[in-house]
């Protein structure tokens, strides 16, 4: 199960994946984004930067204006006041652009860097829990419990860096990343997105696209290594925004790699600031004590 695609809003985290998300995460109730570009499972059009950019005072100020507008579009103080998210839904992976059977998930996210995601599919349960740069994984197929591997922890860090929550909530400042304005980019017939970039001291960069019409997060673009160790373009696209208690959130996150769809997160229920017990993140002593 590809948890990397999931962490964003948040997420991928669902973060990363909510945020991304989950990400992230993981972010548009606007009709033109209800269907991903190129169609589900289709190829995405090539994406190019609107222009090159460096962080200068005027450049950074422009980027900050775009972020401020996005925060207001997502609910302003109501959005910034969210400290925990519990979400449920379906995760579908894609192979060669074709969807596979969806898996159900429950995701517990406590900002800024604690997340537990539980997957169920074909009678098998998988749990991945992250707390900062540490965590643990339960594999229901083999009934094993293990500490997070370094590469898994790195994937979670990437999910947090590429989550819209990261750029909007200012977590990037702790890593001394540089914020810059890239420019405007085509997003379809008669549409443009505003693009900002974060550049980290280790060289990692991520671009965030925000709708020019409503200011909501539309897409994140970054590079991730494939199985051959090659850097390939990764895109996370946010769609079907709904207002929940004054906070506007995406209920669909589509993942693309090298222009081909690799996954979709479809949220069915999102609860904000719901109680999340600390015990959910603690590593069990053994499989029998797993909750």
What is this entry, summarized?
The chain is mainly beta and 291 residues long. Helix content is 13%, strand content 41%.
CATH architectural label? Clam
Q: Ends: how far apart?
A: 20 Å
Number of strands: 14
Number of domains: 1
Overall structural class, as computed from helix and strand content, comes to mainly beta
Q: Give the CATH H-level superfamily.
A: Lipoprotein localisation LolA/LolB/LppX
List the secondary-structure elements in sequence, H or E: HHEEEEEEEHHEEEEEEE
At CATH level 3, the topology is outer membrane lipoprotein receptor (LolB), chain A
Averaged pLDDT: 85
The share of residues in helices is: 10-25%
Q: Assign an overall shape.
A: globular
What is the C-alpha radius of gyration, as a whole number of Å? 18 Å
Percent of sequence in beta strands: 35-45%
Largest sheet data: 14 strands, antiparallel
- How large is the count of helical segments? 4
CATH class: Mainly Beta
- Which stretches are poorly predicted, pLDDT < 50 over at least 5 residues? 1-40, 45-49
